[in-house]
Amino acid sequence: MSIKKKMGMGILAGALGVSLIGGGTWAAFNDVETTSNSFNAGTLDLVVGNTSTMNFNISNLKPGDYFTKKLVLTNNGSLSINDINVHALKLAGWSDVPNADTTVGTVTNTENEFLSQFNIEIKKTTGGAVVYNNTLAHLVSGTGVGELTGTASVAPAPAVVGLAPAATIEYDVKVTFVQDSTTFNNSRLHVQNKYQGEKSNLQFVFEATQMPGETRNND
Fold it and tell me: Is 55 a member of any domain?
Protein backbone atom coordinates (compact mmCIF):
# COMPACT_ATOMS: atom_id res chain seq x y z
CA MET A 1 0.00 0.00 0.00
CA SER A 2 1.35 3.43 -0.94
CA ILE A 3 2.13 6.13 1.61
CA LYS A 4 -0.65 8.35 0.17
CA LYS A 5 -3.30 5.61 0.65
CA LYS A 6 -2.10 4.96 4.21
CA MET A 7 -2.32 8.66 5.06
CA GLY A 8 -5.82 8.90 3.52
CA MET A 9 -7.11 5.99 5.61
CA GLY A 10 -5.58 7.48 8.74
CA ILE A 11 -7.27 10.84 8.20
CA LEU A 12 -10.67 9.13 7.55
CA ALA A 13 -10.39 7.06 10.72
CA GLY A 14 -9.48 10.16 12.69
CA ALA A 15 -12.49 12.09 11.35
CA LEU A 16 -14.82 9.19 12.26
CA GLY A 17 -13.42 9.17 15.76
CA VAL A 18 -14.10 12.88 16.18
CA SER A 19 -17.70 12.39 14.97
CA LEU A 20 -18.36 9.61 17.49
CA ILE A 21 -16.83 11.55 20.36
CA GLY A 22 -18.82 14.67 19.53
CA GLY A 23 -22.11 12.73 19.65
CA GLY A 24 -23.63 14.82 16.90
CA THR A 25 -23.51 18.15 18.85
CA TRP A 26 -22.22 20.85 16.57
CA ALA A 27 -23.24 24.05 18.39
CA ALA A 28 -21.17 25.49 21.20
CA PHE A 29 -23.85 28.01 22.31
CA ASN A 30 -27.17 26.72 23.72
CA ASP A 31 -30.27 28.18 25.44
CA VAL A 32 -33.19 26.28 27.05
CA GLU A 33 -36.51 27.90 28.01
CA THR A 34 -39.61 26.34 29.67
CA THR A 35 -43.27 27.29 29.92
CA SER A 36 -45.83 26.32 32.54
CA ASN A 37 -49.09 24.80 31.25
CA SER A 38 -52.30 23.56 32.86
CA PHE A 39 -55.30 21.73 31.47
CA ASN A 40 -58.33 22.06 33.71
CA ALA A 41 -61.58 20.31 32.80
CA GLY A 42 -64.77 22.19 33.61
CA THR A 43 -67.76 20.79 35.49
CA LEU A 44 -71.25 20.00 34.26
CA ASP A 45 -73.70 20.00 37.18
CA LEU A 46 -77.47 20.21 36.71
CA VAL A 47 -79.44 20.68 39.94
CA VAL A 48 -83.16 20.02 40.32
CA GLY A 49 -84.42 22.56 42.85
CA ASN A 50 -86.86 21.51 45.55
CA THR A 51 -87.13 17.92 44.34
CA SER A 52 -90.12 17.34 46.63
CA THR A 53 -92.30 19.27 44.19
CA MET A 54 -91.47 16.76 41.46
CA ASN A 55 -92.29 13.69 43.56
CA PHE A 56 -95.75 12.82 42.30
CA ASN A 57 -97.79 10.76 44.73
CA ILE A 58 -101.33 11.45 43.60
CA SER A 59 -103.90 8.78 44.43
CA ASN A 60 -107.56 8.11 43.67
CA LEU A 61 -107.35 9.73 40.22
CA LYS A 62 -110.19 9.62 37.72
CA PRO A 63 -110.32 10.59 34.02
CA GLY A 64 -110.40 14.36 33.67
CA ASP A 65 -108.29 15.01 36.79
CA TYR A 66 -105.06 16.99 36.43
CA PHE A 67 -102.36 18.54 38.60
CA THR A 68 -99.52 21.01 38.05
CA LYS A 69 -96.04 20.99 39.57
CA LYS A 70 -93.16 23.46 39.45
CA LEU A 71 -89.83 22.29 38.00
CA VAL A 72 -86.74 24.42 38.74
CA LEU A 73 -83.42 23.59 37.05
CA THR A 74 -80.12 25.31 37.90
CA ASN A 75 -76.71 25.06 36.27
CA ASN A 76 -74.39 24.62 39.26
CA GLY A 77 -71.32 23.84 37.13
CA SER A 78 -68.65 25.92 35.46
CA LEU A 79 -69.63 24.95 31.89
CA SER A 80 -72.60 26.15 29.91
CA ILE A 81 -75.26 23.52 29.30
CA ASN A 82 -76.35 22.83 25.74
CA ASP A 83 -79.38 20.52 25.99
CA ILE A 84 -81.49 19.39 28.93
CA ASN A 85 -83.46 16.25 28.19
CA VAL A 86 -85.98 14.44 30.35
CA HIS A 87 -87.17 10.86 30.14
CA ALA A 88 -88.89 8.45 32.50
CA LEU A 89 -87.95 5.06 33.89
CA LYS A 90 -90.40 2.44 35.08
CA LEU A 91 -89.94 1.33 38.66
CA ALA A 92 -91.15 -1.83 40.36
CA GLY A 93 -94.71 -2.04 41.59
CA TRP A 94 -96.81 -2.39 38.44
CA SER A 95 -99.60 -4.91 38.66
CA ASP A 96 -102.44 -5.25 36.20
CA VAL A 97 -105.86 -5.31 37.83
CA PRO A 98 -108.16 -7.29 35.53
CA ASN A 99 -111.55 -5.63 35.20
CA ALA A 100 -114.29 -8.24 35.13
CA ASP A 101 -117.70 -7.48 33.71
CA THR A 102 -120.47 -9.80 32.60
CA THR A 103 -120.93 -7.84 29.37
CA VAL A 104 -117.41 -7.66 27.98
CA GLY A 105 -115.64 -10.35 29.99
CA THR A 106 -112.31 -9.93 31.78
CA VAL A 107 -110.21 -7.14 30.29
CA THR A 108 -106.45 -6.80 30.88
CA ASN A 109 -103.88 -4.22 29.79
CA THR A 110 -100.18 -3.38 30.00
CA GLU A 111 -98.37 -0.69 31.97
CA ASN A 112 -97.66 1.23 28.76
CA GLU A 113 -101.37 1.24 27.95
CA PHE A 114 -102.08 2.62 31.41
CA LEU A 115 -99.40 5.32 31.07
CA SER A 116 -100.78 6.32 27.68
CA GLN A 117 -103.86 7.62 29.52
CA PHE A 118 -101.79 10.40 31.12
CA ASN A 119 -100.67 13.44 29.16
CA ILE A 120 -97.74 15.52 30.40
CA GLU A 121 -97.22 19.10 29.29
CA ILE A 122 -94.03 20.96 30.21
CA LYS A 123 -93.85 24.67 29.49
CA LYS A 124 -91.54 27.49 30.51
CA THR A 125 -92.93 29.56 33.35
CA THR A 126 -91.65 32.75 31.72
CA GLY A 127 -93.21 33.21 28.30
CA GLY A 128 -95.28 30.03 28.48
CA ALA A 129 -93.51 28.26 25.61
CA VAL A 130 -94.44 24.57 25.56
CA VAL A 131 -91.31 22.41 25.32
CA TYR A 132 -92.92 18.99 25.67
CA ASN A 133 -96.47 17.71 25.23
CA ASN A 134 -97.09 13.98 25.01
CA THR A 135 -98.08 10.94 27.07
CA LEU A 136 -96.21 9.43 29.98
CA ALA A 137 -95.89 6.27 27.91
CA HIS A 138 -93.99 8.25 25.29
CA LEU A 139 -91.70 9.72 27.95
CA VAL A 140 -90.69 6.31 29.27
CA SER A 141 -87.05 5.50 28.49
CA GLY A 142 -86.64 3.91 25.09
CA THR A 143 -89.88 5.39 23.78
CA GLY A 144 -89.47 9.15 23.87
CA VAL A 145 -87.28 11.97 25.13
CA GLY A 146 -88.42 15.47 25.97
CA GLU A 147 -86.00 18.26 25.09
CA LEU A 148 -86.38 21.06 27.61
CA THR A 149 -83.89 23.49 26.07
CA GLY A 150 -82.86 24.41 22.54
CA THR A 151 -79.81 22.78 21.04
CA ALA A 152 -76.65 24.62 20.06
CA SER A 153 -75.41 21.89 17.76
CA VAL A 154 -77.64 23.09 14.91
CA ALA A 155 -77.27 26.82 15.53
CA PRO A 156 -74.70 29.06 13.82
CA ALA A 157 -71.94 30.66 15.89
CA PRO A 158 -72.21 32.08 18.43
CA ALA A 159 -73.97 28.99 19.71
CA VAL A 160 -77.23 29.29 21.63
CA VAL A 161 -76.61 28.40 25.27
CA GLY A 162 -79.28 26.23 26.85
CA LEU A 163 -78.38 27.20 30.42
CA ALA A 164 -75.38 29.31 31.42
CA PRO A 165 -73.41 28.73 34.65
CA ALA A 166 -75.33 29.90 37.75
CA ALA A 167 -78.48 30.42 35.65
CA THR A 168 -81.88 29.00 36.60
CA ILE A 169 -84.86 28.08 34.46
CA GLU A 170 -88.39 27.24 35.64
CA TYR A 171 -91.09 25.08 34.09
CA ASP A 172 -94.72 24.30 34.85
CA VAL A 173 -95.40 20.58 34.58
CA LYS A 174 -99.04 19.60 34.07
CA VAL A 175 -100.18 15.97 34.16
CA THR A 176 -103.69 15.15 32.99
CA PHE A 177 -105.61 11.89 33.24
CA VAL A 178 -107.13 12.17 29.78
CA GLN A 179 -110.84 11.50 29.58
CA ASP A 180 -111.89 9.13 26.81
CA SER A 181 -115.56 8.39 26.16
CA THR A 182 -114.84 5.39 23.90
CA THR A 183 -116.99 2.37 24.76
CA PHE A 184 -116.56 -1.34 24.20
CA ASN A 185 -118.30 -2.77 21.15
CA ASN A 186 -121.98 -3.37 21.72
CA SER A 187 -121.72 -1.97 25.24
CA ARG A 188 -122.29 1.25 27.14
CA LEU A 189 -119.20 0.55 29.27
CA HIS A 190 -116.25 2.89 28.73
CA VAL A 191 -112.95 1.31 27.74
CA GLN A 192 -111.15 3.30 30.45
CA ASN A 193 -112.94 1.19 33.06
CA LYS A 194 -110.14 -1.35 32.63
CA TYR A 195 -107.69 1.03 34.32
CA GLN A 196 -109.57 1.24 37.59
CA GLY A 197 -107.41 0.42 40.64
CA GLU A 198 -104.10 0.37 38.70
CA LYS A 199 -100.87 2.14 39.64
CA SER A 200 -97.54 2.87 37.93
CA ASN A 201 -94.32 4.08 39.56
CA LEU A 202 -91.99 6.25 37.50
CA GLN A 203 -88.69 8.01 37.99
CA PHE A 204 -87.98 11.19 36.03
CA VAL A 205 -84.40 11.53 34.77
CA PHE A 206 -82.97 14.90 33.72
CA GLU A 207 -79.84 14.82 31.54
CA ALA A 208 -77.68 17.84 30.73
CA THR A 209 -75.19 17.82 27.87
CA GLN A 210 -72.20 20.06 27.20
CA MET A 211 -71.86 22.71 24.52
CA PRO A 212 -70.09 21.64 21.28
CA GLY A 213 -66.28 21.75 21.33
CA GLU A 214 -64.64 24.93 20.06
CA THR A 215 -61.24 26.50 19.41
CA ARG A 216 -59.74 27.75 22.66
CA ASN A 217 -56.95 30.24 23.30
CA ASN A 218 -55.41 31.19 26.62
CA ASP A 219 -58.13 32.49 28.93
Answer: yes
